[in-house]
Hints:
Elements: E1 42-43, E2 62-72, E3 78-88, E4 92-96, H1 103-110, E5 118-123, E6 126-127, H2 132-137, E7 139-142, H3 154-164, H4 169-182, H5 198-211, E8 216-220, H6 228-243, E9 247-251, H7 255-261, E10 264-269, E11 272-277, H8 279-286, E12 290-296, H9 300-311, E13 316-319, E14 322-327, H10 333-343, E15 348-355, H11 358-366
Parallel strand pairs: 4-9, 4-10, 7-8, 8-9
Antiparallel strand pairs: 1-11, 2-3, 2-5, 5-6, 10-11, 12-14, 12-15, 13-14
Amino acid sequence: xxxxxxxxxxxxxxxxxxxxxxxxxxxxxxxxxxxxxxxxxxxxxxxxxxxxxxxxxxxxxxxxxxxxxxxxxxxxxxxxxxxxxxxxxxxxxxxxxxxxxxxxxxxxxxxxxxxxxxxxxxxxxxxxxxxxxxxxxxxxxxxxxxxxxxxxxxxxxxxxxxxxxxxxxxxxxxxxxxxxxxxxxxxxxxxxxxxxxxxxxxxxxxxxxxxxxxxxxxxxxxxxxxxxxxxxxxxxxxxxxxxxxxxxxxxxxxxxxxxxxxxxxxxxxxxxxxxxxxxxxxxxxxxxxxxxxxxxxxxxxxxxxxxxxxxxxxxxxxxxxxxxxxxxxxxxxxxxxxxxxxxxxxxxxxxxxxxxxxxxxxxxxxxxxxxx
Length: 372
Ligand SMILES: Nc1ncnc2c1ncn2[C@@H]1O[C@H](COP(=O)(O)OP(=O)(O)OP(=O)(O)O)[C@@H](O)[C@H]1O
Ligand SMILES: [Mg+2]
């Protein structure tokens, strides 16, 4: 039995508002106690790994748990370094990090696609390294790359996925038709997948990930390539799934999406976790101040040194050709920077002051802009 009526309003682009795709679950799960976590901050100092197991959420069991998980690729690249991470049942957990941080490698290890060098990873009680076949049954994956089967059409991509996962022909057909309707792909069902737009292909991948009713879904940059309306609708779908008890792990470069939709976030850089908390917790702990961005003609490093002396803070970084200064408050920041730049005879080309948000928290932790 796949489908039950639902009462909630569904996004406009989902054309079967009375149908739910994910109840009841195929896999027997412990009772879920789902509420939005309000845990406290777990922060790591520079160069140190921080797990998030230190702030248990009452009643919520960990559905993903890694211990000292490590991946060293051939050639010696340490992509993920002793990662200890816990994701609680029913939460939307975001993995944020700059390019090359190790997000996809982490997702790859948790979904059996990448074999860890050392450490352990348990998903829904199953050791993913020891029992990859069982682990695959309880996970749904939307990879960063398009992994649709180019030899199958749209409908077949879903149907055979269901069959591969042990669903009966009838159940797979019903679920396929339902998901194509919900994801507004029904009119494309006989299309070759290479004929789909990037956004449609992504929607089909999300639908496929949900088809066998996994206990956890992993989405690696799921909203890349989607138009704004589809992005909003996708997050609404993820929110609905969460309401039904679904655990979601998502990587995203979009700070505003992470801020708005994730219960907790891990900020990752160089294969390590720099901080784990709720978006509000991260901002409260690391934000509250202001960031000043300065661009100028001339040697940017010299300007940074000048500003460091002038504002009496070491929180001055050179990021992508500009200087970024973190200050405890916005008031007076502009005058301070202008005076310092003039004293050093720098000609400013841009000066901006902004109150801290998740993006500035991210820059403070990693020294990098998230977007390229
Ligand atoms: N198959 C591979 N062989 C060797 N090195 C790899 C391989 N896959 C990834 N890497 C390296 O491992 C590091 C982490 O890569 P990964 O793809 O996990 O990062 P990411 O955070 O997902 O980045 P992005 O935001 O660009 O998707 C990078 O330095 C990358 O070049
Ligand atoms: Mg990636």
